Fold these 2 entries.
Entry 1:
Amino acid sequence: MTKNWKTAGLAACAAMALAACSSESESEDASADAGSAMSVEEAAQEFSKLEKPQPGQYSLKVDVTSFEMPGAPEGMLDQMRSALEGAYGEGFCLTPEEADKGFEEQLGQVAQSGECNFSRMDVDGGQVSANAVCDVQGGTMTLDMDGTVSATGSDIVANTKMDAQGQTMEMTMRMVQTRTGDCAA
């Protein structure tokens, strides 16, 4: 995961939830399941409505509120939950250069190579609501995101369902990002 993904809770959420997107996709059906997919340009136009984030130090709290994977070995779900929740424990510094890029670049990274198609992307004020369907090796993943994004933080809830290689996984997580001050020198 690149530093650029950390520029917003929305982008970080998308990055974590969409990490399974594979450029070696074996599924041709995910795009059809998405209904009429938005072009990257249309989705980027919606993203451009968001305020650019302010540079500075940010905290990021990830709370996995549900995680289900039938047939998973005992302890595996707790390990996955712990890894996701602890991934950003130290927070991050958002540089002026990263902040100046806004959110469109992150959207491009999510949708690159057509692996993930947005069937819905709505931005109204600071409210964000989106749905994406991604090709993953051996199946598909659906992501629904809702929340708020501002220049100094975000609060996003993401629901993910993945059906791949005969396995189903469903997860809901909440990501809260808050600007805590200037970056350490």
Entry 2:
Amino acid sequence: MPTSNILILPGWQGSGPAHWQSRWEALHGDLRVEQHDWMRPLRGDWIARLEDVLLSQTGPSILVAHSLGCMLTAAWASHSRNTHLVVGALLVAPGDPETEMGQSNFPSFAPVPMQSLPFFSVVVASRDDPFTRFERARLFAQTWSSEFIDYGARGHINAESGLGDWPEGRALLERLSNGQAATQTKSN
């Protein structure tokens, strides 16, 4: 993989040891962006933490987000003056804070930022994700100017989906890190 920092952005409640994000940390040395409170996420706190970690890195970073981590990525990109620090994002199973479940568990993440991301990105969505309707995930991808991948019926694309080390996802990350993810050129 090229010389980019791979930053893992788990969603609400973090990613447990069987989650592909945690497995990637162990296998590949990717860096988890630890949040102060995984159970009661506050968008401003999570954005500030991501900004701090990005500013501490040497060289460009690629974000690997799952669920609410996807919303963090979009929210951070809509507020930060340092989006040039990110060269790409793999956005897997975006959690929707505007659903009933989202409003009760992470209301500070609504509304969803609906603008183009200033870096290459790929949204991977499942047709039977219990946290985001498939068409809503497709809308996020369109609005964020992300490549969209229909991953079939794989639940929330997490540990319960039986992905193990998720080599298909790692191949997507490899493509993204080589700048092959999007057909459009992004400018920061």
